[in-house]
Specification:
This protein is α/β, with parallel strands linked by helices. The chain has helices spanning 14-25, 41-46, 48-66, 82-107, 164-167, 184-195, 215-228, 283-286, 321-335, 364-370, 385-390, 418-430, 435-439, 450-459, and strands at 2-10, 30-34, 110-113, 115-119, 123-128, 131-142, 146-148, 161-162, 176-180, 199-203, 231-233, 236-243, 248-254, 261-265, 267-270, 274-276, 290-291, 294-295, 308-310, 349-351, 356-361, 374-380, 396-402, 408-415. Helix 1 (14-25) packs parallel to helix 9 and helix 3 runs antiparallel to helix 4 (82-107). The chain is globular and about 65 Å long.
Length: 466
C-alpha cells in the first residue's frame, strides 16, 4: 500500500502532533506516524501529564494531613487509596490522548500507528500490526523525542530501580526512595512519593539542586524542600547498584573522589536526564547527519538531506514539551511558505513541586559571565496579601533587567502558581519589554501577580509593599 502526502511527521508527541495539526490547518495533506498506539508522546503518556496528576493528588493528600487544621477544617483518620489515585491519573491521560485523536480527525490529519523508518526518495516505511505500509512524502519531519538517559552501573528494571516511567506506576508507597539526580524530574517525582509517606533522599553529582537554574533560586528551593522532609546528598556520584527482593544497595562516593559507602533504599529512581531517540529511523541509510545523538538542523529545522526536517528533543536545546510545540508550529509554517520562528530566549521552564519554580531568560550567573551590566528587582511572597491569605508565602519573584535600557533579561520565581505567573515575564521577554512596562501595568488586588509587579518596581528601587 502506498499513500502520498505533503508532509509525514514521525512521532506523535507535543512537537509532532502540533506540527501535523498546524500543517493541516495550512492546507498540507499530512500524516503522523506514532508507534506507541497513543498520541501525546512521552509528555502525555508517561511524563508531564501523569506526573502533574500525581503531584496534584499528593498535594491534596499532604494538605489534608498537615494543613487543613489551621484553616479550621477537621478531618478524621486519613487514608491513602493509591489505586484510586493511579486510576485518576490514568483517566486523565486516556482522556487527553483521545482528545488529540479527535483533533486529528477534525483537521483531517491521517494517523498511522506503527514504527516509521525513512527510506530513500523521501519515503517513510511504517511497520505496524498489519505489516508494512509505504508513505510517500514531499517533506518529512522527525519528531521522535527523547528517552531516559541510563546511568552506568545502574540497571533499570522498572521494579526496584525505576525510571520516571516506573515511578509513575508504583503499586505501593516505598518506605524509602533514593532519587539519583536533583533536576526537574527527580524533584517532582521525589515530592510525590515523599508526600505519600516515603523517606526520600536525592543524590546529585553537582554542588546544588536544579543546577541549570539561577543560583539563588536553586539554593532557596533546596532549603524549602529540606524543610518539607527531603534529604540531599550533593557532590556525590553513584557507581553501582544491586537489587534484591527487598530493595536496592547503592554504592556512592564523593564526586571529587574518596571512600565509597553503601546506601540502602526500597526503590531507586534514576532521573539524570534524557537523550535523543533516533533508534530505527534509518538516518544512517539516508545520510542524515547526527552528532552526539542529536539530529543536526539549521535555523529552519532542515537536516542536510533535502526534504527532511527535525524538531523537539531530538535536535537538542531545552528538552521541554512547549519548546517542541513552538518548533512544530514553526516548521509547519515554513513548509507552507510562511515565516515560522521560535524565540529561544523566551522559553520558560517550570518545576511543579510546591512551591513551584519557574524561570525564563538569563540567570545572574550567565549575565555575570557575559559581562552584562544588570539590575535586580526582588519581591517576597511573604509580603503579598494573597499569598499570606492562602498560607502559601514561601519564595519570591526576581526580575533581571539591563542596567542601561531596563529591558527584561530574565525572570525567576519560587512560589505558588509560579508556572502561571512566569507567563507575564515571558511575554515581556518576547516583546523586549522594560521592567518599567510591568511596573506600570495595573494588577488585580489581592492577587499573586502583584508580586511580579512589585519585583518590577523593585528593579527601580521603588517597591511599595517592601
Amino acid at each position: 500500500m502506498s499513500d502520498t502526502f505533503d508532509l509525514v511527521v514521525i512521532g506523535g508527541g507535543p512537537g509532532g502532533y502540533v506540527a501535523a495539526i498546524r500543517a493541516a490547518q495550512l492546507g498540507l495533506k499530512t500524516a503522523c506516524v506514532e508507534k506507541r498506539g497513543a498520541l501525546g508522546g512521552t509528555c502525555l503518556n508517561v511524563g508531564c501529564i501523569p506526573s502533574k496528576a500525581l503531584l496534584q493528588s499528593s498535594h491534596h493528600f499532604e494538605a489534608a494531613g498537615h494543613e487543613f487544621a489551621q484553616h479550621g477544617i477537621k478531618v478524621g483518620q486519613l487514608e491513602l487509596d493509591l489505586a484510586a489515585m493511579m486510576g485518576r491519573k490514568d483517566k486523565v491521560v486516556s482522556g487527553l490522548t483521545k482528545g488529540i485523536e479527535g483533533l486529528f480527525k477534525k483537521n483531517k490529519v491521517t494517523y498511522v500507528v506503527g514504527s516509521g523508518r525513512i527510506a530513500a526518495g523521501n519515503k517513510v516505511i511504517v511497520t505496524g500490526q498489519d505489516g508494512e505500509q509505504t508513505l510517500q512524502a514531499k517533506n518529512i519531519v522527525i519528531a521522535t523525542g527523547s528517552d531516559v538517559t541510563p546511568l552506568p552501573g545502574v540497571t533499570i528494571d522498572e521494579k526496584r530501580i525505576v525510571s520516571s516511567t516506573g515511578a509513575l506506576a508504583l503499586s505501593s508507597v516505598p518506605k524509602s526512595m533514593v532519587v539519583i539526580g536533583a533536576g526537574v524530574i527527580g524533584l517532582e517525582l521525589g515530592s510525590v512519593w515523599r508526600r505519600l509517606g516515603a523517606e526520600v533522599t536525592v543524590i546529585e553529582y553537582l554542588d546544588r539542586a536544579l543546577p541549570p537554574f539561577d543560583g539563588e533560586v536553586s539554593k532557596q528551593m533546596q532549603r524549602i524542600l529540606e524543610k518539607q522532609g527531603m534529604k540531599f546528598r550533593l557532590k556525590t556520584k553513584v557507581t553501582s547498584a544491586e537489587s534484591s527482593d527487598s530493595g536496592v544497595t547503592l554504592t556512592v562516593e564523593p564526586a571529587a573522589g574518596g571512600d565509597a559507602e553503601k546506601i540502602e533504599a526500597e526503590v531507586v529512581l534514576v532521573a539524570i536526564g534524557r537523550r535523543p531517540y533516533t533508534e530505527g529511523l534509518g538516518l544512517e541509510d539516508v545520510g542524515v547527519r547526527v552528532e552526539r545523538g542529536f539530529v543536526q538542523v539549521d535555523n529552519h529545522f532542515r537536516t542536510n538531506v533535502p526534504g527532511v526536517y527535525a524538531i523537539g528533543d531530538v535536535i537538542g536545546g531545552a528538552m521541554l514539551a512547549h519548546k517542541a510545540e513552538e518548533e512544530g508550529v514553526a516548521v509547519a509554517e515554513i513548509l507552507a511558505g510562511q515565516h515560522g520562528h521560535v524565540n529561544y530566549e523566551a522559553i520558560p521552564s517550570v518545576v511543579y513541586t510546591w512551591p513551584e519554580v519557574a524561570t525564563v531568560g538569563a540567570t545572574e550567573e550567565q549575565l555575570k559571565q557575559q559581562g552584562v551590566a544588570y539590575k535586580v528587582g526582588k519581591f517576597p511572597f511573604m509580603a503579598n496579601s494573597r499569598a499570606r491569605a492562602n498560607d502559601d508565602a514561601d519564595g519570591f519573584v526576581k526580575i533581571l533587567a539591563d542596567a542601561k535600557t531596563d529591558r527584561i533579561l530574565g525572570g525567576h520565581i519560587i512560589g505558588p502558581m509560579a508556572g502561571d505567573l512566569i507567563a507575564e515575564i515571558v511575554l515581556g521577554v518576547e516583546f523586549s519589554a522594560a521592567a518599567e512596562d510591568i511596573a506600570r501595568t495595573c494588577h488585580a488586588h489581592p492577587g499573586l501577580g502583584e508580586a511580579v509587579k512589585e519585583a518590577a518596581l523593585a528593579v527601580d528601587g521603588r517597591a511599595i509593599h517592601m
